[in-house]
Amino acid sequence: MSLRILDDIVHTVGVVHRLCLVIARQDPDLSRQMKRAINSVGLNAGEGLSARAGNRTVRLESAMASGREVILGLRIAGAAGYLDGERVAREVDAVDRIVAILYKLAYKPR
Hints:
The protein is mainly alpha-helical.
């Protein structure tokens, strides 16, 4: 499960970075913030999945919080008209799925 989620995260990082190229044309600040947040999802998830006990939970919580930041960034980009609604919905679902899996991994009994 852990390796699969990391593959999904890496794929989603690529998708969000490509969307940020579109967003950057009209809102460079939002684009930069979203790229930092999606990178944080991947880096914290990777670190958390190889950590133990409290550090594991803290890193996975950071990854989840960054994921929620990306979700809101996508919704803001959609509301501002930078991205079409269908694309926003699809990518919000992908990031939300990642956050849900990270939650299960953070809080499942070991």
